[in-house]
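Students often ask why inverse folding is considered easier than folding. One informal answer: many sequences map to the same fold, so there is more than one right answer. In these notes we will look at a single instance of the problem. The structure comes first.
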């Protein structure tokens, strides 16, 4: 070293370095400027920081000319005395862990204050590097946490989008905060970009705003889950315009505290489930009627047989009296004929009821449904009820062959046509249409379409119930559609109806094809 000593750095410069180190984030790149300042203050050839790599040191940052070798640093670290050395080496430590060394190569000897400054600088750099490691660790943890939160958020979004439900969430201002993919692609689909941030009244503008607001207000106020069914005509459902049933569930949600902050609205298409429930309920009713018939009809048939036998005996007795010259009132014969007719009608009802409890085995074979239509029309062409109405047919020549019993299917079609004629009165057209089906097990479709007054929504669930009829007294027993239902069900098919008041009715029979 030179014989003269360098002046110690002024306190203001030391304070400035300390402030800059405190504000740095501990990365070596941010310490480069501080090393340049120290080099200038000490008049050093070089000022550098070497980081501990375990078994060796690696140069991290340098200010000045490259004048210090690794061997010199290692030799300085191995010696305990500090004086008389060309370079000054100070260990950078944090607790018991070595992080590296601070190396200064002054051009002249430093005063004691300068040497103390290097010690202080080493302590400050050690603290800054330790702080930097903590910052980097925190950043890594925060990055991992952010990535985890983003992944969980994305998973939640995927789960919500994958639900076979229409789901959206509104806040207390009725603005949409969540809008799942099913709400985008459903029959009332609205894109998420158009929905988010807007009020629900702007989006679901088909529903009255007052009623919709009341539904949400009830949930906000009561904190209870609300559930109800609505029906809507799904014009986008293949263009059929069929009415669909949706179960709407509104769930209160709390983000913080006890106040409800959001409402989750879930819409589920339960049309198929409702239809299946109705079919199951109908089957239960038919089974109950069958059990009732099995237990009661036998007891009814006995007194009916007695009444019929007595009426026959009275008829024979009156014939004997007439042969003997006795003047028998003419009304007596009419009354006996009336009694016999009513007895036979009651026995017919009893026999039809017994068919529910004791279904007869019938032969199943491939059936041409178009041929069933032709045979039925041939049988009905002289029927009094079809003198005024017009019959039209739309028969698909590519219709698959059904498997069933042609006589029973003729009975079903005849009952449906007679019901349609009764509903229409004296004017209008009844259309019989056949077409291939699309659902598995329902490949053959036969429809009877009338232009009658239609069936009210309240009556629709009941029309297949035994003894239920909307016809005037004396025009029917209410068993025709029940028998049709039983026959079609035994064929492995189903029967359904689309109707609305003032829009006529369509009865649809769906049957499996013979190949199935």
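Output (designed amino acids):
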């Amino acid at each position: 070293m030179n014989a003269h000593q360098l002046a110690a750095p002024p306190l203001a410069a030391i304070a400035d370095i300390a402030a800059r180190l405190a504000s740095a984030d501990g990365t070596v790149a941010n310490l480069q400027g501080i090393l340049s300042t120290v080099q200038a203050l000490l008049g050093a050839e070089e000022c550098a920081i070497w980081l501990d790599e375990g078994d060796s040191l690696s140069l991290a940052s340098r200010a000045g000319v490259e004048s210090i070798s690794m061997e010199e640093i290692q030799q300085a670290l191995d010696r305990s005395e500090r004086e008389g050395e060309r370079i000054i080496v100070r260990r950078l430590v944090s607790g018991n862990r070595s992080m590296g060394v601070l190396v200064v190569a002054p051009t002249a000897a430093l005063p004691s204050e300068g040497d103390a400054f290097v010690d202080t600088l080493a302590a400050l750099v050690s603290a800054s590097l330790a702080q930097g490691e903590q910052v980097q660790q925190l950043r890594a943890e925060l990055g991992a946490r952010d990535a985890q939160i983003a992944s969980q958020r994305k998973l939640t979004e995927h789960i919500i989008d994958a639900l076979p439900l229409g789901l959206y969430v509104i806040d207390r201002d009725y603005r949409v905060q969540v809008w799942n993919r099913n709400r985008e692609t459903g029959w009332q689909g609205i894109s998420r970009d158009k929905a988010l941030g807007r009020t629900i009244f702007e989006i679901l503008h088909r529903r009255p705003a007052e009623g919709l607001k009341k539904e949400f207000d009830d949930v906000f106020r009561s904190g209870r889950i609300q559930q109800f069914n609505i029906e809507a005509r799904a014009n986008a459902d293949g263009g059929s315009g069929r009415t669909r049933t949706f179960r709407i569930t509104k769930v209160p949600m709390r983000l913080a505290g006890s106040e409800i902050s959001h409402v989750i609205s879930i819409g589920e298409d339960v049309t198929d489930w409702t239809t299946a429930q109705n079919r199951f309920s109908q089957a239960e009713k038919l089974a109950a009627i069958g059990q009732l018939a099995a237990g009661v009809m036998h007891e009814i048939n006995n007194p009916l047989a007695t009444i019929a036998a007595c009426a026959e005996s009275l008829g024979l007795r009156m014939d004997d009296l007439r042969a003997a010259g006795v003047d028998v009132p003419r009304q007596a014969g009419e009354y006996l004929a009336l009694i016999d007719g009513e007895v036979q009608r009651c026995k017919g009802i009893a026999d039809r009821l017994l068919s529910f409890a004791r279904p007869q085995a019938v032969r199943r074979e491939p059936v041409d449904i178009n041929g069933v239509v032709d045979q039925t029309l041939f049988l009905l062409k002289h029927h009094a009820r079809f003198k005024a109405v017009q019959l039209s047919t739309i028969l698909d020549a590519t219709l698959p062959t059904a498997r069933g019993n042609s006589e029973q299917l003729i009975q079903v079609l005849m009952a449906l046509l007679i019901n349609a004629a009764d509903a229409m009165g004296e004017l209008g057209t009844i259309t019989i249409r056949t077409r291939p089906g699309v659902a598995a097990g329902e490949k053959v479709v036969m429809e009877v379409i009338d232009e009658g007054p239609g069936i009210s929504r309240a009556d629709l669930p009941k029309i297949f119930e035994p003894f239920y009829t909307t016809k005037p007294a004396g025009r029917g027993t209410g068993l025709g559609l029940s028998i049709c239902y039983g026959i079609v069900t035994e064929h492995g098919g189903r029967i359904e109806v689309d109707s609305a008041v003032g829009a006529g009715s369509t009865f649809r029979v769906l049957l499996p094809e013979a190949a199935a």
